[in-house]
Design goal:
The chain has helices spanning 12-19, 56-66, 73-92, 125-138, 204-212, 244-247, 267-281, 295-301, 303-311, 368-386, 394-398, 408-442, and strands spanning 2-8, 27-30, 47-48, 118-119, 143-146, 150-157, 160-167, 173-183, 216-217, 222-229, 251-253, 286-289, 321-330, 333-335, 347-349, 354-355. By secondary structure, it is α/β, with parallel strands linked by helices. The chain has two domains: 2-221 and 331-422, FAD/NAD(P)-binding domain (3-Layer(bba) Sandwich), CATH 3.50.50.60; 226-325, Flavocytochrome C3, Chain A, domain 1 (Alpha-Beta Complex). Strands 1, 2, 5, 6, 7, 8 and 15 form a seven-stranded mixed sheet that branches. β7 (160-167) and β8 form a beta hairpin. It starts with a strand and ends with a helix. The structure holds flavin-adenine dinucleotide.
């Protein structure tokens, strides 16, 4: 197969990139599962936007503070500055955000935000955004969408990417030549037993990057979401109880139904407090009380959360629901610059797969959809800028040995092991550095 630009992943970042590439280029988007099975469809809470200049400093500070000031300041600035343009784009694609009675955009708040600056659509903002992006992409004759098609390797020589090896829906293996490849493969939740992510998101782009010496960054920065619905059943995917419910007044309670934490602190702080409380109480979960949220608000803003809880035996209108932390988001990833270019030529990474440092050590709620879109747009600008100087290497494709990818199970296991090992090694190095620093400071 041959294409101009290969986009690996059909979440919000991959789709937005496709919409920003020129109509005269052939674009191929592949996805490991069906088109609706991406985390982008699961996003509940919303998407941030700089409301006006007066909020710039606060928004910047909230993002940096949540990220423990390890964020890349340039990336944070870019994300905030470009937010209004991206939201205008989404509205032009037909995305329907909640409005006030006067027709202006309605904003909500989540943990660690000092102001209301989050746009939402009920509690299914990700579905609203991503389904509209998908609708627009489907209208583009220059875009081919391939479901159940998995990237198993990149084809590169001397640090230049020329395309990929794909496992097709019928399990056959094929190569695809591409002038540019954009990795938009999402997170790593599938590597964890308890995660809010789709199970097929297993950090494939990271494993492949490790094999090819493509630079990674902050791979041990894994975010645990403080509140997912607790069930004794071994669930496939943990159901998220969005942070917005705490933004709107929900409380966290221990086994004696007492508050034990300021619910609006950053995610990692709230997660630590919950885990400590569970240990102290000897319980498998804590309680979340949604009753402080006015009934109208509960039903209009969070209809899916209410429905899910009821289906699972709890009525949040009249009783507390059990919640527990679970793996949720990956702040680290394939290292990219502010144009989403990786350390390999003709290869870009966007969305949760990429690390441009915007989130630092911990992501501020509702910054992820925005960051994914802003930096997807920037990748496409850079692709266009470098299009004329692209290198091709058809000879290389004749040398690719597809048999080595035949054993799907073994290959998948090897990939998972590679990523988990990289995460634990980075964790170990960070702990060693902390010990050395504390020894140094004692001298
Ligand atoms: C439950 C939940 C709630 C969330 N709520 C919010 C929120 O309110 N606000 C917010 O900003 N963020 C939220 N997030 C985070 C946000 O949804 C994600 O970070 C964002 O959607 C990631 O988009 P993406 O395009 O990078 O990846 P995804 O949307 O995850 O898409 C990844 C794509 O890559 C494909 N893929 C993966 N590996 C391969 C491969 N080897 N070959 C081919 N295709 C592959 C997948 O099939 C999929 O199509 C939430 C996440 C979850 C899980």
């Amino acid at each position: 197969m041959k294409t101009d630009i290969l986009i690996v992943g059909s979440g919000c970042s991959g789709l937005y990139a496709a919409l920003h590439l020129p109509a005269d280029k052939q674009i191929t988007i592949i996805t490991k599962a069906d088109l609706e099975s991406s985390d982008s469809f699961l996003a509940q809470g919303g998407i941030c936007m700089l409301r006006d200049e007066r909020d710039y400093d606060n928004y910047y500070r909230d993002t940096m503070k949540a990220g423990h000031y390890e964020n890349n300041p340039e990336s944070v600035d870019i994300m905030i500055r470009e937010s209004q343009r991206v939201i205008a784009d989404l509205i032009s694609y037909g995305v329907d955000f909640e409005r006030e009675a006067d027709g202006s955009l309605a904003f909500t708040k989540e943990g660690a935000h000092s102001e209301k600056r989050i746009l939402f659509h009920e509690d299914i903002t990700g579905r609203e955004i991503t389904s509209k992006l998908l609708e627009r992409v489907r209208e583009r004759p220059n875009v081919t969408l391939l479901e159940y098609t998995t990237m198993v390797d990149l084809i590169e020589e001397k640090n230049v990417c020329y395309g990929a090896v794909l496992r097709m829906q019928d399990d056959s293996l094929e190569t695809i030549e591409a002038k540019f490849t954009i990795l938009a493969c999402g997170g790593i939740g599938g590597l964890y037993r308890h995660s809010t992510n789709f199970r097929h998101l297993t950090g494939d782009a990271l494993a492949i990057s490790i094999r090819h010496g493509i630079k990674l960054e902050n791979v041990n920065y894994v975010q645990i979401h403080p509140t997912t619905f607790y069930t004794e059943n071994e669930e496939e995917r943990s159901f998220l109880i969005s942070e917005s419910v705490r933004g709107e007044g929900a409380l966290l309670l221990n086994k004696n139904m007492e508050r034990f934490v300021d619910e609006l602190q950053p995610r990692d702080v709230v997660t630590k407090a919950i885990l400590a409380q569970m240990e102290k109480d000897g319980t498998d979960h804590v309680w979340e009380d949604l009753r402080p949220i006015p009934k109208d608000e509960l039903h209009s803003h969070f209809p899916n959360i209410v429905a899910y809880c009821r289906e699972h035996g709890y009525d949040p209108e009249t009783e507390c629901i059990p919640v527990v932390p679970a793996q949720h988001y990956f702040m680290g990833g394939v290292k990219v610059n502010s144009d989403s270019a990786t350390s390999m030529k003709q290869l870009y990474a966007i969305g949760e797969t990429a690390c441009n440092g915007v989130h630092g050590k911990n992501r501020l709620a509702s910054n992820s959809l925005l960051e994914s879109l802003v930096f997807a747009g920037r990748a496409t600008t850079d692709v266009i800028l470098h299009y004329a100087s692209v290198k091709e290497n058809p000879e290389l494709f004749k040398k690719v040995r597809l048999e080595k990818y035949q054993d799907r199970e073994a290959f998948g296991k090897e990939n998972s092991d590679l990523v988990l090992k990289a995460i634990s090694q980075a964790e170990w190095i960070m702990e060693e550095e902390a010990i050395l620093n504390s020894e140094g400071s004692m001298e």
